[in-house]
Design goal:
With 170 residues, this protein is mainly α. The protein contains one helix and no strands. This is t-SNARE coiled-coil homology domain-containing protein.
Length: 170
């Protein structure tokens, strides 16, 4: 009996466990399907990881390029700083020249005004001297004219006297 009982129990238990066993097989199949899906997802993540690695490499390459560009910009910035210093120096020199030119202009203007006022005085003095000389020449001309008339008159008188004296001698 024991064997019968065990067989019966086994049969009853098998019958009772059969739906659970089917459910477990269904679950096992579902887990296999889920495992396959996870393997597909893992493969996709691996593919995405490889893509990200490629993108990282590209970003590293771009970073290196930007580092080179940054160095060039730094170099250009240093050159501009040097040029700014040169321009500042030139501006200071130009400012100094501008100040000197303004001072020179003021001095020249003052000297020119002195020269112009002296020139006006010289012109007035020369005009006055020319006028005095002209008056002197007019007087001398009048004196020469008078002397010429007198000389001509005297010559005339002398010729008359000479003529009279010749006539009287004859």
């Amino acid at each position: 009996m024991d064997k019968e009982l065990i067989t019966t129990l086994k049969s009853v238990l098998d019958d009772a466990l059969q739906p659970i066993h089917r459910q477990l097989e269904g679950m096992d199949q579902r887990f296999d399907s889920i495992d396959q899906r996870f393997e597909g997802i893992d493969q996709k993540f691996d593919s995405i990881g490889q893509r990200f690695d490629g993108i990282d490499q590209k970003f590293d390459s771009i970073d290196q390029r930007f580092d080179g560009i940054n160095q060039k910009f730094d170099s250009i910035g240093q050159r501009f700083d040097g040029m700014d210093k040169r321009f500042d120096g030139m501006n200071q020199r130009i400012g100094g020249l501008e100040t000197e030119l303004k001072e020179f202009r003021a001095e020249t203007k003052t000297a020119l005004q002195v020269i112009q006022s002296g020139q006006q005085g010289t012109r007035q003095e020369m005009t006055q001297r020319f006028n005095e000389t002209r008056e002197g020449f007019k007087r001398m001309e009048a004196d020469f004219t008078y002397v010429n008339h007198k000389t001509a008159d005297h010559e005339l008188k002398f010729h008359r006297l000479e003529s009279e004296s010749k006539q009287n001698r004859q």
